[in-house]
Structures
1.
Amino acid sequence: MGETFIEEMKRMSRLSEAERQLLAEMKPVLEKHAPQIVEAFYAQLEQFDRTRDILHAQPGRIERLKGHLARWLIRLADGQYGEDYHQERYRIGHRHVEVGLEPRFVIGAMSFCRTMIAPIIEQEYANDPQKDARRLALDKIMDLDLNIMLQSYDDKRIQQFLEVTGFSKELFENMIAGAAG
């Protein structure tokens, strides 16, 4: 059996064991700062009609989502990035598709989180010689998450296309391969 998606993506990003350890060491820092990041994140989403509509589509949704985002942030520093991690992140992307959140907002949200976390790393690890390595490790795991979530978008949208058109997956893949070749 070949390499799994998560194994291949970790290898592609060159996420090392040392970086996984640095991430795990950062968990208390992410736990400490998660509330302020979450509040800033949702204040940012309120600035856009599309995301505001999604946030307010159901009573209590924002509070539930705040809890999910805090757990997502903290889990970035889990240090363990295997199949369970992959499936959890994939479900997040899948859920974003289901509620109608376009990929551009997921990419923008990831960028927002990065810009919130960067000064926290600067502050918390000001005298740490591993500060830059910590930031790089966090960038790698956030890129891995983004990759997984965007793959779930592709998969879900292909599934929706196949359901609407009645095409088989094999026919669709042959059409794409033919168009590319």
2.
Amino acid sequence: MTNPTIEIDLGEILKEIKSDQKSIFQEISEIKKEIKSDQKVILEEISNIRTGQARLEEKVINLEKDHNEFKESTRKNFDDIKELIEKNNNETKESIKELKTAQETLAADVADLKGVKSLIIPIVVAVTTAILTLVARSIPFG
């Protein structure tokens, strides 16, 4: 039996390995470029997210401030309205007292007028009688 011999040119294999190695390094370089590009996009997105978060936090702070101002304003308005209602109630009570006093005075005056009305007829009769008596005495009879 004879052993088959394989002739291999080591120089050719080395060239092939170097060629393959060069293409592998080139592919690795392209992958690195893609990763750097993707990394740049991701960093930009993170930056945008952080900017958006800062804006959102600022809006929340402004909303809290506006809410607190609204609560304070509402409380003040409520207190003002309450004070006005109390003042109005006091004025209304005083007006009612004044109206009752005026009503009582008017009722007394009306009662007095009724009394005077009942005296008018006797006064008119008395004056008329006095005048007729004067006229009758001033006429000479005879």
